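Researcher: I'd like a structural prediction for the single chain below. Treat it as a standalone chain; there are no partners to consider.
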Amino acid sequence: MTEKTRAPQAVPHRNGGQPTHAFTFLGTGAGCGVPAFFCDCPACEEARRVPRARRGDCGAVVRGAGTTLVDTPPDLRHQLEREGIRAVDQVIWTHAHFDHLGGLGELEYMVRLGGRQSLPCYASPAAHDGILAEFHYMDDILAFSDLAPADNVELDGVRYTALPVAHAPGTYGYLVETPATRLFYASDTARLPEATAERVRGCDVMALDATFWGRNWSPQSHHSVQEAIEEGLSLDVGTLYLTHLAMHYDTPVTLAELEGFLEPYRGRVRVAADGLTLAI
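Model: Treating it as a single chain, here is the predicted structure.
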């Protein structure tokens, strides 16, 4: 597994396999993003000055011969344009909260104006219900397959396994597997359920919720940065990426401060960034 950003970094890969797909963080922020229009904390002011400190709402995309979205954040149209993506083949959701769902309406135009019959979609039954409650007018073009816990589906040569996490009912993290890489993506979760933790132990890459800096006022639904690091390293992951970063909930932290805090981990723990791409 290798990594590409606008400033490339080298990432160790345990298996030595040949990457076949690209995993891109579309957004890496918690709800309201960074900067938030209503906030003038040090983290938001830094993001106004420093483009690489800016974060849209969380989502990801996996690209090989086809394109698979993981969530449809409200910033989706701008994120897809930024990444040069002209078509989406299917969507898989972690859950149905607005910051992971709100951009779905952008895909209606792609399907209807593009003359497609439907868009293949995958989610838990609870997320499926939540999605259709918000986007009932797209019911005729969303071709859903419900995923039960531990179900897996192969899309474009990548295997996705739905693993329960500690967030809203029906929320999944996804174990994303190619011949070269085992990657676990859990953008919204508190400490992982034991069965999920054991399933993802030893992954090459983990992208984990790290919403809060210091005090965590939602410990049943999210990690703090410090809690995410503790859990990720205890599971012997190769490289841990911190995502769903609020940067300004409760105690603000600037990107410069956060990167300084991570220096002792010598690259094993990294801050995810919007547009960061991993070869998997």
